[in-house]
Amino acid sequence: MVNGPVTVAGCSAAATKWGLDMKKVLNLALAATAVAFTATPALAVAPSDKNATATARVVKPLTLSWQRDLDLGTIVLGPGSWSGASVGITRAGVFSCANANTTCSGATQTAQYKVTGTNNQVVTVTAPNVTLTNQNDNVSTLVMTVDNPGTVNLGNSGSSGLIFALGGSVTVASTTPDGTYFGTFNVTVNY
Please, which contacts does 93-97 make with residues 24 or more away whose CB atoms are closer than 8 Å? Predict the structure, then answer.
């Protein structure tokens, strides 16, 4: 190792110093370039066909309101020992009491509800079976199988909403206790 100023043969001391300073500058520039290349991310490339889009559909909240109750009229049980007689009304309003062991009378009707929401939306209607309880003894029950549309389309109903019907049927037997049977629908609607 050499102590003191270094001279290159044929060069002045100023030129030698300039050369050493230039070497430091070049080394510093090379180091900065290496850091820049390692820190620069790859160039971003856009899809060649199309960019993705984002959408959001906003809908009004649904409202559900009762319009009328379901009524199966009066069911008269015939004599003897029998079972499995079905009495019901479809959601379209077709009443059925065709079993030879039953006679039916009185006004019958479907239950009706009104749903309002956003136009042209499909609404799912959920209406599970209803347990009808005899009002004379509160122990005897009938299970009413609900005839549910499943879905309804609001179309262009606007704020007036759409009325839909629910039907139902019960099965009676010669041992069914007499009385008025009552139950409540548990209807819900969702988009």
Answer: 93/165, 93/167, 96/169
